[in-house]
Design a protein that fits this description.
- Helices cover 47% and strands 16% of the residues.
- With 431 residues, the protein is of the alpha/beta class.
- The protein has two domains: 2-224 and 411-428, 3-Layer(aba) Sandwich (Rossmann fold), CATH 3.40.50; 229-409, Glycogen Phosphorylase B (Rossmann fold), CATH 3.40.50.2000.
- The protein has an eight-stranded mixed beta sheet with strand order 4-3-2-1-5-6-7-8, sandwiched between helices.
- Helix 7 links the parallel strand 6 and strand 7.
């Protein structure tokens, strides 16, 4: 079975897209996957056999001088760095970091007029001969245009996967541009949902809300892991100082929650050093934000490390931290989301401290499954830390609960079996 997937980033195991999709698909027999990516970078994954790349710099060059806007690139064979290409992408990334809607519109316009639909792209898809288009459903204009072109040109079935709220109006913004953009994209989303025989979602909250709108075609699909009791990581006996780790994105108000956690640690450490919080993130932070997360002897901020290294660090920790914002805007933006690192946490056999509002799907998960110490308000952060320190048997209790929840809800064998059957049904129904 040949599956084609169009993505923003190239498929790499060290970025969020590649890590999640490799986790979902890797090990499923009788699958061949090709990737069309729309950003600079080199694919590195054993999950895909072929990759076609279109960059914004190539689109701009094509506007000035007619030529090709994309090309097939080798997988797992990174060439010498193309400084000019990298510099072009860095320029776009600097512009896009401001995340204003007009900037996104400018980007969408480049893709609209940039002649990405080339004979080379058609040849790539035609030679791969996909049986199915698997669509990561992003909040993006141009990715949906590419998917629509492929579906119409090659007449193949589609399945989708949505991990953020890309449709509902349960959002907060004072910008009229935001609402205009969302209304435009809602029209595209309705088309995308109509194309797909089945759509996977990231949480029960998302499934419930989207089913009400679009009908019964949604199923929950998260990252998975091998919850084999014989390979369960050994529980780490805690020392006098409890080591806490947070690794990942600290945007969407998460740095505020982590700063509250750091303050709570500082207060508890005034008598003796009870906790140490280490934060690993690639999120750009202002000097003021960094100062809130750097408290000597209490909280330290570190640059990002590889996925393999962070897994080793998590295994050495006593408590793994998950944080979601309490502010209304951020709560609404993430209320359907389920962080990819949660399954990694569950598989580490460590106590999890989850901080956030119960309206967020990820926090609700910890409450429903009783698989972590949960702070549902800022005031409860200190309460939960005091409980964990005064009764360290709770660390083992929550580690056991986390493992049990992972085994029940995210077991690799069961999840991949269901996924393959759905893919097979979609392809078989088209033949």
């Amino acid at each position: 079975m040949r599956i084609l997937i169009v993505s923003n980033s190239p498929w790499r195991n060290d970025n969020s897209f590649g890590n999640s999709f490799s986790n979902i698909f890797e090990g499923i027999p009788d699958l061949e996957i090709a990737n069309i990516c729309c950003k600079y970078g080199h694919p590195e994954s054993n999950c895909i056999s072929r990759c076609y790349q279109i960059t914004e710099k190539s689109l701009l060059k094509n506007l000035m001088k007619k030529g090709t806007s994309g090309k097939e690139i080798a997988v797992n064979d990174a060439p010498k760095e193309d400084d000019s290409a990298q510099s072009g992408e860095k320029t776009f990334n600097k512009i896009k970091k401001y995340k204003s809607i007009p900037m996104f519109w400018a980007q969408a316009m480049i893709w609209k007029i940039g002649r990405w639909c080339s004979p080379e792209l058609v040849e790539f898809v035609d030679s791969f001969k996909p049986d199915l288009l698997f669509i990561p459903i992003y909040y993006s204009h141009y990715l949906h245009d590419i998917n629509e072109f492929i579906l119409k040109r090659f007449n193949i079935p589609a399945m989708g996967y949505v991990s953020d709220d890309v449709y509902t109006m349960r959002q907060f913004s004072l910008s009229p541009f935001y609402w205009i953009d969302r209304l435009i994209l809602r029209r595209k989303m309705r088309k995308v949902f109509s194309w797909c025989k089945k759509i996977y979602v990231i949480s029960e909250t998302q499934k419930r809300e989207y089913t009400k709108i679009f009908g019964d075609k949604f199923e929950v699909l998260t990252k998975c892991s091998d919850f084999d009791d014989s390979k369960r990581p050994e529980f780490k006996t805690p020392g006098d100082t409890l080591k806490m780790i947070y690794a990942g994105n600290v945007s969407k108000g998460r740095y505020k929650i982590l700063s509250e956690l750091a303050k709570a640690v500082e207060a508890l450490n005034s008598d003796k050093k009870s906790f140490m919080l280490d934060i690993y993130t690639s999120t750009p932070l202002s000097d003021k934000q960094k100062a809130r997360l750097c408290i000597d002897g209490c909280c330290a901020l570190h640059p990002p490390v590889s996925y393999g290294e962070i897994r080793k660090l998590q295994a050495q920790a006593d408590i793994l931290v998950h944080a979601e914002a309490f502010d209304l805007k951020e709560r609404l933006a993430t209320h359907q989301s389920f962080s990819t690192k949660i399954v990694d946490y569950l598989a580490t056999n460590r106590c999890i401290l989850a901080i956030g509002d119960k309206s967020c799907a990820s926090i609700d998960y910890f409450v429903r499954n009783s698989c972590g110490a949960v702070a549902l308000s800022k005031d409860e952060i200190t309460v939960q830390l005091e409980k964990l320190y005064s009764d360290k048997s709770l660390l083992k209790y929550y580690a056991d609960k986390a493992w049990a929840s992972g085994k029940k809800n995210h077991n690799r064998g069961e999840m991949q079996k269901r996924l393959y059957e759905s893919l097979e049904n979609a392809v078989g129904g088209n033949k």
